[in-house]
Amino acid sequence: MHKKKWKRVAIVRKVLTFSIAGIALLALLYVHVVFPASEITKLPDKLPTQHETSYQRLSRERSWIQELAPPHLPKAPLASRKLDVASRNGSLDKLWKPPPNRDYVPCVSASPLYTPPPGSRGYLLVHTNGGLNQMRAGICDMVAVARIINATLVIPELDKRSLWQDSSNFSDVFDEDHFINSLKNDVNVVKKLPKELATATKAVKHFRSWSGVDYYEEEIARLWDEYQIIRAAKSDSRLANNNLPPDIQKLRCRACYEALRFAPKIEAMGKMLVDRMRSYGPYISLHLRFEKDMLAFSGCTHGLSPEEADELKAIRENTTWWKVKDIDPVEQRSKGYCPLTPREVGLFLSALGFPSNTPIYIAAGEIYGGDSHMSDLLLRYPLLMNKEKLASIEELEPFVNHASQLAALDYIVSVESDIFIPTYSGNMARAVEGHRRFLGHRKTISPDRQDLSTHAISARIAEEEERTNFRYKGNG
Which of 291, 421, 416, 300 minimizes the C-alpha distance to 351? Predict the structure, then answer.
């Protein structure tokens, strides 16, 4: 009887041992089937840079791991697995795919009839005006004008008196030597007037806006009979866009996209910002023109408080060179003359289908109202970046208080972005979009500010807004 009892105990022990072994084997098989060893032990394909170690040790494959997000940056609201699934089924690929070039390529090479610059008849001084991109366009126009009137172009003087009060000189923003050398077969360019002409009488002229070749060859070139120096008091919009000889148009393009390169320190800083954005994966550059000067100038007050609207009106009335003072904000908005608000941008991106962990670079100055107007966009897209988040105070210190140089950094990051989205069709938006086309038809998405209801996405925007309002109301 005692032996039978021990036999039963031995049998039970064997059964338990086999059961435990079986469970362990099944668990091991599950790990290898569901999580292949190659995925468990996979290491990053490159080591993070020193800056990435302190700012962002993030995956380079469209996923953002919350545990590794730096404390001063927002964490992704979705697990990386959700983005990976979306990527596999192709929904994201379609959003990021660039448009076809349809066999269009840059056409900037001069024709066989184009000759080196003829003998100079005098010197052209140029005082540029406006912000960075307004000055860029004006400089390119003045290169063409110098060619038309057989002038030696003196390195242009940048605007120091505008709203931005930037003291930068040409060489602080642009690569001066590259500019001169790139144009040597087109126009003679010098850094300054010869000493013997420093005190010579100048013909100061406001060139007529949107003028063609005839105006410069006849009316302006006639000034050489009395003067050795012609000074252009303004540079913006002085040359016609149409009906110019092809070689003059090509010269403008060469000046804009080849000769007018940013200063080395700006190029280096811009490249660093681009690399840091790319560590998050493909990114959108959002030109969010919801800035105080833009809203005051345009008279746009949608989404603002009465106190904010009054402040902007006072700025417009006290800015003497802004001619239009009395503006109807409702009419402005209905005509599409207003930038989208940050909240509208969030709705727009959601309706297009961009997931909430999409990296977005904010290419703009200080957003009017700060957090009070950015909170909704930040809630939808926590990975909002700008210069101040991507770079340290020490790295940005050389550019602070120089609006043109800071704008140049935004320009570089925007040109290199996977998708560029302007919220207002101003100088920068047009300049960046044109540059992106020149470099290979990179994707740009321009919202219809006049009437978003004309788009197929309008129903999705309305649905998203209704759901958002419900959620906010439900949360009290």
Answer: 421
338-373 pLDDT, tens digit each: 888 899 999 999 999 999 999 999 998 888 777 888
Residue with tokens 């060619």: 147
Tell me which residue of 391, 110, 425 sits closest to 253, measured CA to CA: 110
Q: How many helices (H) and strands (E) does the chain have?
A: 21, 10
3-state secondary structure string across 336-350: CCCCCCHHHHHHHHH
DSSP class of residue 196? G
**Top-level class of domain 122-259:** alpha beta
In the numeric block, the tokens 């390529």 are attached to 105
Give 453's DSSP letter. G
Helix (H) or strand (E) holding 286: strand 284-287
Name the phi and psi angles at 165, rounded to 5: 50, 50
Classify domain 264-474 at the CATH class level.
Answer: alpha beta
pLDDT of residue 40: 31
Q: Percent helix, strand, coil in the chain (nearest 5)?
A: 50, 10, 40
Helix (H, G, I), strand (E, B) or coil at 263: coil
Q: Where are the domains of the chain?
A: 122-259, 264-474
Query: What are 476's two structure tokens?
Result: 């009290």
Same topology between domain 122-259 and domain 264-474:
yes
